[in-house]
Q: What sequence folds into this?
């Protein structure tokens, strides 16, 4: 099936830029559902059209509760932040699975300097576009400033300077019941069909070799731990769990 880049009137040059980017990365949509990447005046949207029904994913950090919460520090009690332990706020951390950027923003809102990696070219484009718009929002700008988004796989070769900590959230079957999350999940799953993530156990091992203090892995609450090692500890939320691993050298 296809992923069509469709530009709104006036957005054709940006549409061509995006087309070139995807072709340059040899991108081919392998999923069964036809998808549209719409280039609009308000940024990019991923669309799945089914007759008259349309599923649309448009990332916007500035509007809604999430942006407000991030900008006004309602995130201190988040499981992910608690799982980062007493790592100093301005530390360099890696988010190896940026996805739709929620965890990346949470980490940056806490004060970490975040290098975020996203391997899927379309997900990367959606997130890069949303971060660019968020950088113009007065409250979010200082948070976005702490984020560097990279396209590609998070590997020891690409990570560069060893981060203090790494966060890893590989795909797993849907974990949330909220309608908005369901819709986002449906669209990202349609996008990634036929193009699975690299082996998560190997990625975890590589991240443990790179990080100097800890690696945090997000799992469904009742899922087994990833890989053969028992985590040092876990922070449990309502539907997810954050497993904490020591660096490989210390275990
Ligand atoms: C479950 S989603 C992450 C969701 C993210 N934590 C959030 O808050 O939106 C996993 C994402 O990581 C990407 N990914 C998986 N393994 C990766 C790797 N080794 N390097 C870079 N990106 C990876 C996938 O393409 C997917 O977009």
A:
């Amino acid at each position: 099936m296809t992923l069509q880049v469709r530009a709104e009137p006036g957005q054709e040059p940006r549409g061509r830029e995006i087309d070139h980017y995807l072709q340059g990365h040899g991108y081919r949509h392998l999923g069964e559902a036809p998808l549209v990447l719409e280039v609009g005046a308000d940024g990019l949207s991923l669309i799945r059209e089914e007759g008259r029904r349309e599923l649309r994913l448009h990332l916007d950090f500035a509007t809604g509760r999430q942006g407000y919460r991030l900008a006004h520090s309602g995130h201190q009690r988040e499981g992910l932040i608690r799982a980062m332990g007493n790592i100093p706020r301005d530390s360099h951390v890696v988010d190896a699975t940026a996805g739709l950027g929620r965890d990346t923003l949470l980490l940056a809102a806490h004060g970490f300097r975040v290098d975020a990696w996203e391997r899927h070219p379309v997900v990367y484009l959606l997130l890069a576009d949303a971060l660019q718009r968020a950088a113009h929002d007065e409250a979010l700008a200082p948070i976005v400033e702490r984020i560097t988004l990279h396209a590609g796989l998070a590997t020891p070769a690409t990570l560069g300077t060893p981060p203090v900590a790494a966060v890893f959230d590989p795909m797993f079957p849907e974990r949330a019941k909220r309608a908005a999350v369901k819709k986002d999940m449906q669209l990202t799953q349609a996008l990634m069909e036929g193009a699975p993530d690299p082996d998560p156990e190997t990625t975890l091992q590589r991240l443990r070799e790179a990080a100097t203090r800890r690696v945090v892995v997000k799992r469904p609450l009742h899922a087994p731990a990833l890989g053969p090692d028992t985590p040092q500890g876990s922070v449990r939320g309502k539907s997810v769990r954050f497993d904490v691993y020591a660096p490989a050298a210390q275990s």
